[in-house]
Design goal:
There is one protein chain. By secondary structure, the protein is mostly helical. About 65% of the residues lie in helices and about 0% in strands. The longest helix is centred in the middle third of the chain and has 17 residues, at about 220-235.
């Protein structure tokens, strides 16, 4: 029997269960696909992806007698890319529901947008496993064409609705924000919906999260919502993308005091066992919210979050974004008992060129920590504070390299007359 006749005997799509023995794939390759040797199996999968007929691989997927070989065939079809897509699409009409389910999963990893309509067509399938697999694939493909059909599934059974919520978040289309927000009051969907709204990351989805954050009664809901809100804020662009949004503006009002108290505890608590600060991602999200919403009463807490050195870059960015309005909080931070906070405040003063805190920065030239002393030197140089030249000259004799190097670099940037006068005075004092 020639190949075409053989294929026609398989039915409309050439997809009947594979017999125990067949000659369409070289026997050694077939054996290797079932091999327990990981290396040989991986090599066989790669070779099958490049050379095996996708129809034969689909037959292997339909074979229920050898799970190992079935999995190898699925991987080979996945790796086959465009050369296997047409055959896998035809497999969506296979008589075996498991083959349809596996085919839908393979198409999700194809990165081929042409398969989206075929997957959307499976969303009304009677088999929930097939629907689930199709949703997951549409989520991976992130096609806007799937948004409205997925929104229609939000009223389906719990398992399917959860999958649709996740997929809508992954796709990130603004049209899904309102339909998702209507599910925020349903406890079983609450966390999944918040995460999805955070991933969508539009002003509308962010506003829904801000409203939920204000209303949250349990700390668990508050924390999950804050994390989602932080993710959304990272995606927003523009100088003030939330300007004019009433829900956002209410975050700055007195009626949001309970929210501010929670944010304060997350940012400024010094108790390492406090459950509110156990998750460092919460501090990051809280800092992003304080910065984005310009919550002035929490600027001091923002600086106190600098106790965690890993947050320094983010907090410096926040300080730069807020600008001179951070001056009072930075001045307070310069006096903080925590070394990391003093260091952060000193660097922020330099970044913002806050000349009004020069005297407080000068006091840090005598700080017990060498990194703080070095930072104070660099900040004073950036502030062009020539009055500090004598004190910086004194630090040329500091016991640590980092401070001496900072002092040398700073003096080179300062007013030559002030530096020369300070050096002459210092030499006279040393020689007397």
């Amino acid at each position: 029997m020639d190949r075409d006749r053989e294929r026609s005997s398989r039915g409309a799509f050439g997809l009947t269960p594979m017999p125990a023995s067949f000659g369409s794939i070289e026997e050694s390759l077939l054996a290797a696909l079932s091999s327990v040797d990981v290396g040989a199996r991986r090599e066989a999968i790669g070779e099958a992806a490049k050379t095996a007929d996708p129809v034969d691989l689909i037959e292997m997927v339909s074979d229920h007698t050898n799970a190992s070989r079935r999995n190898a065939a699925i991987e080979a079809l996945t790796q086959a890319g465009p050369r296997g897509v047409a055959t896998v699409v035809r497999a969506l009409h296979h008589e075996d529901p498991e083959v349809i389910m596996f085919a839908a999963g393979i198409l999700g990893r194809s990165r081929d947008p042409s398969v989206v309509p075929h997957l959307v067509g499976l969303l009304s399938h009677a088999d929930v496993n097939i629907v689930q697999s199709s949703i997951e694939s549409l989520s991976a493909l992130r096609s806007p064409l799937a948004v409205m059909p997925l929104i229609d599934l939000l009223g389906a059974d719990l398992w399917i609705a959860f999958s649709a919520i996740h997929a809508l978040g992954e796709i990130g289309d603004a049209r899904a924000a309102l339909p998702l927000a209507t599910l925020l009051e349903r406890e079983e969907y609450e966390q999944a919906v918040m995460e999805a709204l955070g991933r969508i990351g539009t002003p509308e989805s962010t506003a829904y999260l801000a409203g939920k954050l204000r209303e949250a009664t349990s700390f668990e809901t508050f924390a999950n919502c804050l994390l989602a809100l932080g993710y959304a804020l990272e995606q927003l662009s523009g100088e003030d993308p939330m300007a004019g949004v009433p829900t956002w503006a209410r975050l700055r009002t007195a009626e949001s005091a309970p929210l501010h108290e929670r944010l304060y505890r997350i940012l400024a608590s010094e108790n390492p066992e406090d459950s509110n600060v156990a998750n460092p991602q919460l501090r990051i999200a809280a800092a992003e919210l304080v910065c984005a919403a310009r919550l002035e009463t929490l600027y001091s807490a923002l600086l106190q979050a600098g106790r965690d050195p890993s947050m320094e870059d983010l907090l410096l960015f926040c300080a730069t974004t807020v600008g001179p309005a951070m001056a009072a909080a930075i001045a307070e931070g310069l006096r903080a008992p925590n070394t990391s906070v003093r260091l952060l405040a000193c660097r922020a003063a330099g970044v913002l060129a806050l000349k009004g805190v020069s005297n407080q920065v000068q006091r840090l030239l005598d700080d017990a920590d060498e990194l703080v002393r070095a930072s104070a030197v660099r900040t004073l140089a950036r502030l062009r504070d020539d009055w500090s030249a004598p004190a910086i000259v004194d630090l040329l004799g500091d016991p640590t390299d980092v401070v001496r190097e900072a002092a040398t670099e700073a003096l080179a940037r300062m007013d030559p007359g002030s530096v020369t006068s300070a050096l002459i005075t210092r030499r006279a004092m040393d020689s007397s």
